[in-house]
C-alpha cells in the first residue's frame, strides 16, 4: 500500500493494477521535472504548452488542442535545427504517472549531458541494451508473445496491457508521426482500440524507456477519484477506498502531558488567623 500522506493524495480510491488507470488530466506533474531545470515554457494561442531545453536540443509539447490524440510529444535532437534523433508520444488517456516517470528520467539524463539523453540503444551494452526496457515487466510476471513475424510482445498477467517491439527497418518520419513506432505500449484487449497508448522511436535511450516500464510494473495502486470514471478503466480495474491514516501512537511524554492537562489545579490555602502562646490577647475563657 502506498505510503503517501493522506492529505496529499489526489483521490478517494486506489486503482489496481495501475495500467488500468488513465490520465488525471493534470499536466503539472509531467512538466515539473523539466521546468525545475529552468527550461523555457510558452503557450500558443490555443492553449498548448511547449517546453524547450536551453540548448534547444530537447523539446516537449503538451498538446490538448493538437491535431490528434497525441497529448504529450517529446523529441530530442543532435542538432537543434535538424530532424529529431528520437521521439516519444503519450496519448491523452495515458496515466499521468507514466509520463512523469519519463520526464523525471529525461531531466536526470539532460543534467548528465547529450551522451545520456542521446544514447542510442545498443544490444549487449551494460547500460544501453534495449532489453532494459523489458526487464521490469518480466520481473512482474509479464509473458512473451509473438503476434507476427516482425513483432515481439510482452503482455501483463491479466492480458490487459502489452509492450510491443517491432523488428526490421522503420521509416523515422513515420515513427515520429504515427503509432507505427519501434516501441508501442498500450492497455486494453486490442491495439486498435486501446484504453491508452504510448510510442517510442528506434533511437530512444533504453534508460528512459525503462523508467516508464518500471512505473507500469510497479505493484502499488494509483489514486483516482471514484466519480471520475474517465480516469480509470471502470469495467476492469479494481478499486479500494483510501482511508484516512490512523492517529499516531502516543509517546510516554504525550501521555504525561495529557494527564497534566486534565489534573485540577490545586486550591489556594485558606487564610486562617494563627494564635501563638506569645500573643498579647488571649481567647475568651483562656487565662492570661
TrEMBL record:
Biased composition (Basic and acidic residues): 224-237
Biased composition (Pro residues): 242-251
Stored InterPro entries: DUF317_SPDY
TM regions (residue ranges): none
Region annotation (Disordered) ranges: 220-288
Compositional bias segments (type: Low complexity): 261-274
Stretches assigned to the DUF317 domain: 52-109, 155-222
Protein known as: DUF317 domain-containing protein
Pfam families: SPDY
Amino acid at each position: 500500500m502506498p505510503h503517501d500522506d493522506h492529505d496529499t493524495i489526489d483521490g478517494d480510491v486506489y486503482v489496481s493494477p495501475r495500467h488500468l488507470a488513465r490520465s488525471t488530466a493534470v499536466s503539472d506533474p509531467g512538466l515539473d521535472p523539466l521546468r525545475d531545470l529552468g527550461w523555457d515554457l510558452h503557450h500558443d494561442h490555443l492553449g498548448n504548452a511547449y517546453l524547450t531545453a536551453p540548448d534547444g536540443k530537447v523539446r516537449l509539447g503538451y498538446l490538448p488542442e493538437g491535431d490528434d490524440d497525441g497529448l504529450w510529444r517529446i523529441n530530442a535532437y543532435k542538432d537543434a535545427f535538424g530532424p529529431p534523433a528520437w521521439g516519444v508520444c503519450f496519448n491523452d488517456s495515458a496515466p499521468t504517472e507514466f509520463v512523469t516517470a519519463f520526464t523525471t528520467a529525461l531531466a536526470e539524463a539532460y543534467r548528465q549531458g547529450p551522451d545520456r539523453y542521446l544514447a542510442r540503444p545498443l544490444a549487449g551494452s551494460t547500460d544501453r541494451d534495449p532489453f532494459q526496457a523489458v526487464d521490469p515487466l518480466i520481473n512482474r510476471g509479464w509473458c512473451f508473445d509473438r503476434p507476427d513475424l516482425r513483432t515481439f510482445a510482452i503482455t501483463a498477467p491479466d492480458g490487459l496491457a502489452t509492450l510491443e517491439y517491432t523488428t526490421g527497418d522503420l521509416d523515422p518520419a513515420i515513427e515520429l508521426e504515427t503509432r507505427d513506432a519501434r516501441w508501442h505500449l498500450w492497455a486494453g484487449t486490442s491495439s486498435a482500440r486501446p484504453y491508452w497508448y504510448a510510442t517510442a522511436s528506434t533511437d530512444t535511450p533504453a534508460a528512459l524507456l525503462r523508467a516508464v516500464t518500471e512505473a507500469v510494473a510497479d505493484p502499488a495502486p494509483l489514486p483516482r477519484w471514484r466519480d471520475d470514471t474517465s480516469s480509470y478503466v471502470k469495467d476492469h480495474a479494481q478499486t479500494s477506498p483510501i482511508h484516512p491514516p490512523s492517529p499516531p501512537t502516543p509517546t510516554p511524554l504525550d501521555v504525561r502531558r495529557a494527564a497534566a492537562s486534565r489534573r485540577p489545579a490545586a486550591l489556594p490555602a485558606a487564610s486562617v488567623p494563627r494564635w501563638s502562646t506569645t500573643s498579647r490577647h488571649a481567647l475568651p475563657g483562656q487565662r492570661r
